[in-house]
Design goal:
Layout: H1 2-26, H2 28-33, H3 46-67, H4 73-98, H5 103-128
Helix pairs in contact: 1-3, 1-5, 4-5
């Protein structure tokens, strides 16, 4: 249980950092060009965004920890890629379908989600991989 908690924390920290890089730096001009779609900076509920990220990280890690038998880096990476594509397509192109966001933003949300889930999965896979057997050199 301790390693699962560490994996949740690792994924959370990675996702917060990658979200800052994507949304705070790379897409800042796209957000500035579409102010009618977003809350003013003073009204953004950062505590809620951190809570959402923490719950998402916990769910992501718990599904892997509880239901994936082969705990290898390859499996973790594939898991992150599949979940990332699913989340990214919903985030990027699902939003693009109903909101007047620039296409580059939709693409960045999609690709950013895929990268975040894969990087998070790699960290999770490192934390949750089985300990090497004592008999192996």
């Amino acid at each position: 249980m301790m390693r699962t908690g560490l994996a949740v924390i690792a994924v959370f920290v990675i996702w917060v950092i990658l979200n800052f890089l994507l949304h705070g730096l790379l897409l800042s001009s796209s957000y500035a060009a579409t102010p009618q779609l977003w809350r003013p900076m003073a009204d953004i509920k950062m505590g809620l965004t951190y809570f959402v990220t923490l719950v998402s990280a916990a769910c992501f890690v718990l599904v892997y920890a509880q239901f994936i038998v082969d705990k290898s880096l390859k499996t973790a990476t594939l898991y992150g890629l599949i979940v990332g594509i699913g989340a990214g397509i919903a985030m990027g192109y699902g939003s693009y379908a109903v909101m007047p966001i620039p296409y580059v933003m939709a693409l960045a949300w999609f690709l950013g989600s895929v990268v975040s889930y894969v990087v998070g999965a790699l960290a999770m896979g490192l934390v949750l991989r089985p300990a090497p057997s004592a008999g192996k050199a």
